[in-house]
Amino acid sequence: MEVKLIDLLPGEKGKIIRIEEKSILRKRLREMGIRAGQEIMVRRNAPMGDPIELSVMNYNISIRRSEASAIILEKIESAVKKKDKIIVALIGNPNCGKTTLFNLLTGSRQHVGNWPGVTVEKKEGTMNYKGTKIQFIDLPGVYSLTPNSIEEKVTLNYLKDETPDLVVNILDGTTLERSLYLTTELIDMHVRMVLAVNMIDETKAKGIDIQTGKIEVLLGVPVVPIAAKKETGMEALLDTIIESRTQDPEKRVHINYGEDFESAINELECSLSCFPALTGNLSTRWAAIQLLLGTFDDILIKSGLPEDKELIASTEALRKKLKPVCGDDLDIFKSDRHFGFIMGIMKECVIEKKREIEKRDFTEAIDSIFLNKYLSFPIFALILWLTFQLTFVAGSFFSNLIQKGIDLLSMLIVTYMPAGMLKDLFVNGIISGVGGILVFLPQILILFLIIAILEDSGYMARVAFIMDRLMHFLGVHGKSFISIFMGIGCNVPGIMAARTLENEEDRIVTVLINPFMSCSARLPIYILIAGMFFGKFAGTAIFSLYFLGILVAIITAKLLKTVFFRKKSVPFVMELPPYRGPSLKSLLIHMWERASMFLRKMGGVILAGSIIIWALGYFPRLQTNSDTTNNLLAQYSNTTVTADKALLKSRISSQQSMEQLEYSYIGRIGKAVEPFFKPLGFSWKEDVAIITGVTAKEIVVSTISVLYGGREQSSSIKSRMTNEGMKTSTAYGFLVFILLYIPCLATISAVLKETNSLKWTLFSIFYGIGVGYLVSFLMSSMLRFFNV
């Protein structure tokens, strides 16, 4: 790339191309050895910035900046400087093992955030290797860099606008031909790159010999065979990363698109080289190809440069010129050339032994059962049921241990802390609210563990496969079910997953139905209420809620597609990856991420919510007793039997607490909304819990704990709820309403961001309230009819 001498920084070198000044200056410089082809280095600037000291032919000279501007150079990349930090971007297809590699290299040294402007998850991690700090960026999984999906746009923008020292392209060795398509696109970009051929152990087991050395020679890119799951090849990969950070991308082999297409590329490259702001850090060759394909025009228009109109006009003329030679669809022409190039690599570098026809593949054997016409749906339902049974039963053991610790802490405060407002805050506010949520951490971790296993094993893609017929009937894509199922873990990433859908209407419908999925934040409410009112059938009751959420989502999708979105869904094309055992390290990291997120939430919004709920219930203070309390106090004074006095003392305490709550701000709020919820059978305390749950669903448990039990056991909470009129049928209706009404603020925010529409966000809120009210009334009425 041509630069002027004045553009070089101290220590940088360049090779002289020409001297533009036609005067005595050029003659004088030539006499001193400064001529075309000569290497020159900037040593330093004068204290006031001018002149510049140069080193040429082993001696130093000085020259004014105005004169240096006439010297045009080809910049020479400086020799490898040992940097304290290397930024490495990981890129690859979905299911290529990229995240497994990322987790293996970075371990717990990760930061999870969002990419700027979108809610696509951004993962960064660091490690130290041989004295060098390496920062890894886990880019979203993509099949190509055509900016159709949000993930592809995020990846493309990062490569265009950021400056990673190196890109590590992870290839799935078992699907090498497809994986290399992304590699060929990266080669056109001229990014510094290392290829990591992953799952090399599986390719060997299948009799596939990938000759990585030949691929390296053919592409001009370092290639390292690895098996991330078995942690092999890591040292070689890291050594190659450090060695390759200053490689020259210009020395690579490029795909030849034919004389006419290459001529058009060269013509556009000449135009683009004058305007580096258009291409960012990427090569002009890549930008020229994107212009011809029509995928780069929007970036040019947004740049606002006056040359845009001329450039776009010349590009359009070149496209018309190419059509008779390359066909009407240049995308297809480009793809054919890429895969033709890849086929050549496969023939040269991959040797596949003939396998016995009768030998069945492991994935094929499993799919013959899991995708069986008659067994697939029962197996899926069984997996769901076992998930919630395991979550409830296995998690209860660990929850009980946590509960004992919380009870012990509460008892110590009650025993040793003097009575007063601060003691009440700690016991009935913080410990009751936060502790009431903390006990459900084991169940949440188990749920996320099972979901991670289903995702990493490849079963989740099969779920989309078996559900596509139903989803297509509803008018959406089969991949929508993956987004829906992910909502079981958390509605926010479930909504974010909808952006993998190419059709905008499918995305909006999927986003709007996702809040009906029972997220992990609702799970503590289910466990608390179902555990109290359904006993040994609690797991089945919880399973029915998850099933009900899916059913309501399906009906809503059909309604939306029939009334609002009538366009046909896009064709169903989705990868079915082979079954693989999940990496234990990846599962543990996934659980740690969710646990830390949950604990941070407890220390933030849940703690704040618990304190606010306590304050609303504590103030204003009731100054006088009711007649009922005065009668109990009189009986207490006149009673001499110790047992009777203890009973009366307990009744007086409960009566005073109830009167204080009803008199407090929170009691007044509950009483105000009580008429609205009265047909559903809820008391004002459940009404308050529903209102506070809009902030975060976990706060519902905190509210119930504070209003009903303080630091009491669930059996005491149940008896108090029963005294308020709560029955099994009403309890189930309450859970149904919690399932379907307004999602939490984070989910509402995600809906607004993903739909980019206030109209659909408000629809999601009010539709959820209406459906929740109706279904809750119907379900509780049906259970009452059957005397449940």
Give keywords.
alpha/beta; 788 residues
Q: Note the beta-strand portion.
A: 5-15%
What spatial order of strands do you see in the largest sheet?
8-9-10-7-11-12-14
Radius of gyration: 33 Å
**pLDDT below 50 for ≥5 consecutive residues: which ranges?**
113-119, 301-307, 356-360
Q: What's the pLDDT, averaged over the residues? A: 82
Query: Count of DSSP helices?
Result: 34
Question: What would you say this structure looks like, in words?
Answer:
There is one protein chain. With 788 residues, the protein is α/β, with parallel strands linked by helices. The strands form 3 sheets. It has a 7-stranded mixed β-sheet, with helices on both faces. Helix 9 crosses helix 11 and helix 19 packs across helix 20. The longest helix is centred in the middle third of the chain and has 41 residues. The termini are far apart. About 2% of the residues have low confidence.
